[in-house]
Amino acid sequence: MYPPSESRQTDDWHKSLGKISAGRFALGGQDQAERFKFKVMHPMDTGLVASIPSFYIDQVELRSHSNEIQGRLELSPAVAENPVFTFDTQVEDVALQLWLRDNDGNEFRRAM
Question: Would you call 20 helix, strand, or coil by DSSP?
Fold first, then answer.
């Protein structure tokens, strides 16, 4: 049997649920190319641990200010706890937003 995720080993794990740390970096040598890197606090439970149901981020999108999708990831439960994601893209829009949703319907956002 697998142990519970690290974040589930404390009683207050839910206080940091969905907290996003992010950075935006210019990629040298490429016109308007940027890297968006972010870490989201989430237990990403697979449902394989007894009495802990699956609970994971299943969609990630990088959106423009007009809500146009610039990048999208669709995830399965087998992604690491508190995952780090990276998007490399060429965008002209300086006002971008990260949007995430988990399989329990929780949504998380962060302006970039």
Answer: strand
Tens-place pLDDT, residues 81-105: 999 999 888 876 678 899 999 999 9
Q: What are the residues whose beta carbons fall under 8 Å from the beta carbon of 85, sequence distance 6 or more? A: 37, 38, 39, 40, 60, 73
DSSP letters spanning 51-97: T---B-EEEEEEEETT--EEEEEE--S-SPSS-EEEEEEE-S-S-EE
Number of residues written out for the chain:
112
Long-range contacts of 103-106 (CB under 8 A, 24+ apart): 103/54, 103/55, 103/56, 103/57, 103/58, 104/55, 106/17, 106/18
